[in-house]
Recover the amino acids of this structure.
């Protein structure tokens, strides 16, 4: 009788351990927050305009978390070269020193800062908006932008004409 009871108990336990065919829909919401997880594998794009011209922008290093096609979280760390190595130093766009520089992000970041990179390795962090007044010649800029899901670096060069 004990054998019968043990076998019945084991059989009942095993029948309750089946795999359910039901699946729940994948959500891009992060539990416990109002945040949506992006599906893009890289940070948003940046467009730079100065003196009515679109300035070529070169993406650099970034760290970014997104959802893959199965709904899993994927974090990526990508290294790029130094801003002075990424930009086209041979033929940067010529802009007058009084030109306004507009940074247009595909998705507005939480914050960003801009640096000037000199060929000698000196890096100058700008206190606010990009001002070309007082600059002359080829100038390399690096923009570091931060979002909820990571950050990205973007480089561009202009040839400032006085």
């Amino acid at each position: 009788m004990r054998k019968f009871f043990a076998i019945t108990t084991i059989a009942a336990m095993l029948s309750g351990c089946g795999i359910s065919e039901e699946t729940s829909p994948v959500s891009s919401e992060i539990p416990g927050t109002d945040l949506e997880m992006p599906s893009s594998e890289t940070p948003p794009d940046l467009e730079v305009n100065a003196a009515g011209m679109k300035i070529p922008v070169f993406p650099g290093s970034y760290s970014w978390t997104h959802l893959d096609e199965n709904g899993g979280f994927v974090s990526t760390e990508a290294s790029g070269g130094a801003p002075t190595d990424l930009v086209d130093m041979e033929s940067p766009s010529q802009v007058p020193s009084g030109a306004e520089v507009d940074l247009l992000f595909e998705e507005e970041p939480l914050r960003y800062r801009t640096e000037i990179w000199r060929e000698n390795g000196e890096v100058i962090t700008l206190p606010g908006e990009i001002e070309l007044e007082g600059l002359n010649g080829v100038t390399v800029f690096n923009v570091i932008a931060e979002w909820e899901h990571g950050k990205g670096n973007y480089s561009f060069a202009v040839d400032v004409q006085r």
